[in-house]
Please model this.
Amino acid sequence: MVELKKLNLKNNNISAIEADSFLLLNKLKHLSLQENQLTKLSNGMFSGLIALKFLDLSVNKIQVVEDDAFLELVLLNHIKFFDNMLTTLEKHWFRNVSRPLKMALSEVNCEQKSYNGTRAEQKYNCMNLCWLKHEVS
Model:
């Protein structure tokens, strides 16, 4: 498992993750916790995920994020947060992220017209993205 690069835990009814649960997954780059029952992101929850670049926390019930929950995710560049119960995002949560962070905060329906001029419209799920920039000293 130490060589694992992608882990999909989508729709597993996970309500909590203990600190250090991912400690041995230091090569993991993609983690999906989508469609679970998470309510809180605790300090140490993502410990060991030093190579993680993509984190999907969408469609949970997250209400609380402890200040150091993302502390070790220095390479993170994409996080999905939509369909949760958060009302604010704090910049200091991502203070150790070393590059701009693409963040999906909500899903919206977009319409796209076909190229042949017909009015046939298809609906797609599009993400409303927000970029956070951090100054690196």
In short: The two ends are 35 Å apart (CA to CA). The CA atoms of residues 111 and 122 lie 6 Å apart. Residues 108-137 have pLDDT under 50 and may be disordered.
